[in-house]
Design brief:
The chain is an alpha/beta fold. It folds into 2 domains: 157 residues, 3-Layer(aba) Sandwich (Rossmann fold), CATH 3.40.50; 151 residues, Glycogen Phosphorylase B (Rossmann fold, 3-Layer(aba) Sandwich), CATH 3.40.50. 37% of the residues lie in helices and 18% in strands. α8 crosses α13. It is globular and about 60 Å long. This is Glycosyltransferase family 1 protein.
């Protein structure tokens, strides 16, 4: 089957080079490995981009790994109106927070142009259904998870330090305070800024704290080999989240890294992560809970069990929806 992928094709090239895991492509790599012809194209905000791609490639299926309603408004509108018959499948990472008014009507209209929506969080899916944005029989949560083949190739060790590699809605203030109190070794790898949060001053803030090292990188998938090397050699991963921004499954990528590497993880409690998925890890909220968790991980040799979610299982759950039509 000819499949038009509209997303971030640079991640495909990085996967082909063995630098990044397949789960960054949300199942499209597995489609190609299974023998489907995947056409890798870039998402843009240009109004006619999607329509031009459909006319050029004539795919049998459209797959969007991270649905941006504004970027795909024309494609979805044409699908609803019947001008486009090609079925559209997509992952919806953020559930719109509207329930009434024109905006809610417009989002409902656009989402009805998708044949099936995949979700990363059970709670996000429930919210979308409760807000009448989508119908329950048009969505599912296949359990997005680690590319086990990728992580099995990574050489792992325990060098005693903790590492934070995220950039999205991170609470570095609470993290720095907790590690100042414990004296445990911490490496922070992040970018200069992300989604309105500026991290450029972190090196200056931490320069007098001998147990904390800060590495500022480019905001690009090219730096993942650097991050995976740090995570593979760490004692544990840490994921401090801004508690005022917990309205979607932020932090899930770090959970997947911890699962794939079988590393301990300390993470801020987020209702969009299921309790079952977080069972192997330390879930915290306050500075005191961070301090306690750091000391517990330091003093133990925790073995992380085989995770319930991985990309192989995820794609197996996606396949019947995508191809048995």
């Amino acid at each position: 089957m000819k499949i038009l992928y509209i997303g971030t094709p640079v991640n495909y090239q990085l996967w082909k080079e063995g630098k990044n895991p397949s789960h960054w492509l949300y199942g499209a790599c597995e489609m190609e490995e299974e023998g489907h012809e995947v056409i890798w194209t870039k998402e843009t905000v240009e109004l006619w981009n999607d329509v031009k791609l459909l006319c050029k490639y004539r795919p049998e299926l459209v797959f969007i790994p991270n649905l941006n309603l504004k970027a795909h408004a024309l494609l979805l509108s044409f699908s609803v109106l019947g001008f486009i018959r090609t079925p559209i499948f997509a992952y919806l990472h953020h559930t719109p927070k509207v329930t009434k008014g024109f905006k809610a009507f417009f989002y409902r209209f656009l989402l009805s142009g998708v044949k099936h929506l995949f979700f990363l969080s059970e709670l996000s899916m429930e919210e979308a259904i409760e807000r009448n944005l989508v119908k329950g029989d048009k969505c599912s949560m296949p359990g997005w998870g680690a590319d086990e083949e990728f992580y099995n190739r990574v050489t792992k060790s325990d060098n005693g330090f903790f590492v934070s590699t995220g950039k999205e809605q991170r609470d570095f203030d609470i993290l720095i305070e907790a590690f100042k109190r414990t004296g445990a070794s911490l490496k922070i790898i992040t970018c200069k800024s992300h989604a309105g949060n500026n991290f450029e001053k972190l090196p200056e803030i931490c320069k007098e704290i001998p147990n904390i090292e800060v590495v500022i990188t480019e905001n690009s998938g090219d730096v993942y080999p650097q991050m995976i090397n740090a995570m593979a050699n760490a004692k544990a991963l840490v994921c401090p989240l801004l508690q005022i921004k917990l309205n979607y499954c932020v932090g899930l990528s770090t959970i997947v890294d911890a699962e794939g590497l079988r590393k301990p993880l300390i993470i801020t409690r987020n209702p969009y992560h299921s309790r079952k998925r977080l069972e192997p890890f330390c879930v915290v909220e306050t500075v005191d809970e961070w301090v306690k968790a750091i000391r517990e991980v330091q003093a133990s040799s925790i073995e992380i069990s085989v995770p319930s979610c991985n990309m192989e299982k995820c794609y197996a759950d996606m396949k019947p929806v995508l191809f048995n039509r």
